[in-house]
Amino acid sequence: MKKVKISNVLIFIFLLCLSFIFLIPIITVVANSFKDKFSISQTPFVLPNSNTFAGVENYIKGINDTGFISAFLWSLFITVGSVAVIVLLTAMTAWYITRVKKRFNSILYYLFVFSMIVPFQMVMFTMSKIANVLRLDNPFGLILIYLGFGAGLSVFIFSGFIKSIPLSLEEAAIIDGCSVLQTFWHVVFPILKPTAITVAILNTMWVWNDYLLPYLVIGSDYKTIPIAVQYLKGGYGSVDMGAMMAMLVLSIVPVVIFYLTCQKYIIKGVAAGAVKG
Q1: DSSP classification of residue 264
Q2: Which end of the chain is more exposed for a tag (fewer CB within 10 A), N or C?
Q3: pLDDT tens for each residue of 111-123
Q4: Fold category of 57-275 in CATH
């Protein structure tokens, strides 16, 4: 019993140290966001003091130079729209694939799984050209493109969880007079809540922080936060590190809050969706 307790303490200490190591980059960014740009270059790992403290000057300069408010709103619109579409449509798709036993559905399921292993770099130039031809090079079109890239993992997770739902629940709902859509919305989807939140968290972190896809599809016409931050680079590679650090802090705050609010569901949802069936 004593050995078990000692081992638990050692594991806790190890995980605590590991957590601190993971937090060092975030702490460094937050600390440097309140320092002047010269101090950031000279002493990047030292906390701000009376000589290096710049107050909120970096935040004001970064917001003005990048058009942060506009970029934040576009990022919010694209992220919320993409995640909502991905969660709703992939949940319905996974339910149909799982419940309707047809050969085509099996092939469709494996196509979704296969899409998870295709590197984005293989299709990015073709995708950007097709998006331009089909007039998808705007925020609404970008949401559809995110749906395509996010469907594989989402359908895989949802399908695994749906296999664990007793079919008798759906049959009882149909006997009581529910239509197919009513059965899904009133019986199946509420049960999918942990998995839906897991899918929402994973896709929110991906879409919110994504730089390459918005840059290729919509460019600077509708700047998202990752694209706006790049505009702090000056000529000959010069970078206003103070303003950049401040903008990085502002960009990670919303997704961190969202993750901390919903993180209790992520392990439960991933475990349920990955090991069933």
Answers
A1: G
A2: N
A3: 998 888 888 888 8
A4: MetI-like fold (1.10.3720)
